[in-house]
Amino acid sequence: MKLETLDAGERDQAATKVYKEFVAAQGAGIGQQERTKGTQQLWDFANSSQGETLEPGVAMQKVQEEAETTLGMLAFDAFPRFLKSKYSKAVMEDLKTGSNPNEVAALEGAINTSESKQPGDADEWLNMFVSTAESFPACIVISDMTIPGAPMVYINGEFTKTTGYTKEEAVGRNCRFLQGPETEPESIAVIRNTLSKGQDCHVKLTNYRKNGEKFQNLLSMKPVFDGDNIYRYVIGVQFEILEDKGLKKRLVQLDKLLRLLPSRLNLKSKASAQARGALAAKTTGEANTMIAAKEQILSAGEQREEKEAAGSGARPKQKFKKKKKAAGGVAQADNYDGTIFAFTKIMWLQDAVNTLRSMLMDQAGFMSFDAFLKQCGSQLSQTHLRFWVEAQQILMCQGPQQVQAARQLHMRMWKNSLFYCTTNEIVIGNLNRTGWPPLIQEMGRWQEMSLYFLAFDCFTRYMESPQSREFVTALQLREANGEQLPVKTVSVGLDPDSPSYWMDMLKAMSETLRIGLVVSDMFVPGCPLAYLNEGFAAQTGYGKENIGRNSKFLQGPMTEGYMVEEIVESLRHADPLFCKLQNHKPDGTVYQQCLCLTPVFNVDGEYKYQIGCQVDYDPNNPETPMFIMELERVVRNLPQTLTGETPKAMPTRTQELEDFLASITAGGTGAGPGGLTATPPSGSAPSGGGHPRPGASWTPA
Ligand SMILES: Cc1cc2nc3c(=O)[nH]c(=O)nc-3n(C[C@H](O)[C@H](O)[C@H](O)COP(=O)(O)O)c2cc1C
What we know:
Blueprint: H1 8-25, H2 37-47, H3 58-84, H4 86-96, H5 101-116, H6 122-133, E1 139-144, E2 152-155, H7 157-163, H8 167-170, H9 185-197, E3 201-208, E4 214-225, E5 231-240, H10 247-260, H11 271-279, H12 294-311, E6 325-326, E7 330-331, H13 337-350, H14 352-361, H15 363-376, H16 379-396, H17 399-411, H18 418-421, H19 436-462, H20 466-480, H21 501-510, E8 516-521, E9 529-532, H22 534-540, H23 561-573, E10 577-584, E11 590-601, E12 607-616, H24 624-637, H25 654-665
Antiparallel strand pairs: 1-2, 1-5, 3-4, 4-5, 6-7, 8-9, 8-12, 10-11, 11-12
Helix pairs in contact: 1-3, 2-10, 11-12, 13-21, 13-24, 14-15, 14-19, 16-17, 16-19, 24-25
Bound molecules: flavin mononucleotide (FMN).
Flavin mononucleotide is lined by residues 141, 143, 150, 174-176, 178-179, 188, 191-192, 195, 205, 207, 217, 219, 221, 234, 236, 238, 568, 572.
């Protein structure tokens, strides 16, 4: 303002000084952050005049432009806050003394209107921002980062014009549908990296309109944190790079627009968003310990919001009666029988010998296994089972009764299981003089041998049979009735009405494993680990304190970029993945990790969990082959739905798994370089349509 009162010569000189100081003092604009080469070149071009001597008169014009921008910024952010503050009241009092009463009344009216328009929370801020953004002559979109998958909750009219997608087609989806075969993977990597850290990002990349036409997009993204420091929104501005004369001017305007955007709101989010945001994987990479109380936090948030809505007279959120909804609005399965069976099967096969021993102690268990062998077993396996029972009966007797029972078995000429199952020499004429105690002891050892034979040869097949499924279901009912049983299902002692029932069962099962098992909740932003087992700590060196972090902490400088790309593709498309990649232990040691990813869908067919199983593929560890076999067994039996039933449309992956395991157990001579094996390209289109991307079709040279 003062500049305008100076005469022309002084004014130009002073304006040049002011403008240069202003430019030097500016905060981070475009080009200050992590960027690709293409983005750098573009921004060098936009900045190319900065620092040059300014023409007289131009400086004044620039200062005026900047003043307008600054005013806009104040009007957008600081002024509304000022109006709400106690200071505005003091100013009003000041104005009242000696001013025209009509003018004061008009001003008061205006302030009150502005006050009533103040956003009360972050969601209301969004609504207000949206009404302003609608008229901006640039593409503006907003993603809600507390909603898993970061879908766009708003796009403006300019975005629909530039991309050809309508609001109905774009809102609710992640913006990656604009990507296609020529989208630069390095640009996507920068986006991913900066977004995960909550940093500003400016990236030039190739995108596609709905009609398939390519366009060059200078994408700018501004993360917005709320008053509780929750990573709430990301505002995205898509700037189409048309290499004409006006480009530079438009870039400068874009920079101004971006400077207007806030990165922090002094407003809270609604209770449900607060709860979701509080659970999100932290942008710093440290563990979010709240994840342990996920269900309680989400349901408390929802209840608080409902109460607030009831208090304010707003219509409460619709309650869904059809399906049981757990915290976070996640539909729960009514029937977990399939999962109970699958997890129980994994547990039992983990310790087949002891499980079979306990099962045979239970009458129903014995009958179930016996029925299976009669139907599907060989004569030999049936004889081993008979011997096991007969030996058991003898071993359960005491003193002279035990000797008598042993003698009877040895005397039997017809169908004597001893003939097939032991090497106990039976000389019938000498039976009375036989030293029975060592003979009975020996028989006990042969009984154990028979159990091993049955466990390794028949029990695995039994667990594939309908008899085993029926037995597990019956066992579960007996457990629910409080019966104490020698053999237990995965659900014993767990509350089937708990919203965390599935997770509780997964935890119980995972702790019986020696391989690593982690589970990420795909409904929580940033996909933090909801659980990791002791096996994971043993295989990777990272313990339970890492629950709540995104599992990328395993990656490091030696991790192959193309394998990370494969993992991201698999996560994005909810495809199972089997791969081997270089990971880092906490002390920095590099090792080969066998990783199997299994997606798990909820009853609505949504991608709810991601289970990862890991083995440190150390060729010098004699236990590695055992771990690999365990990995194969576990992954093959993991159900891909919460209910445990395999939907008809689910892709089969057993052959793929077999091929992968065959390639690595054969000494790492897989198809890839240095024995690395990449999975075949998934070939599926990016979720929700769009254009296939190059990352999905990478094959090793
Ligand atoms: C607000 C916002 C706007 C975005 N706009 C675009 C865009 O215009 N074009 C694009 O290719 N990706 C855009 N992205 C990036 C993708 O949505 C996605 O984050 C990126 O592909 C990396 O994640 P991914 O590896 O899961 O695909 C945007 C992301 C956000 C949060």
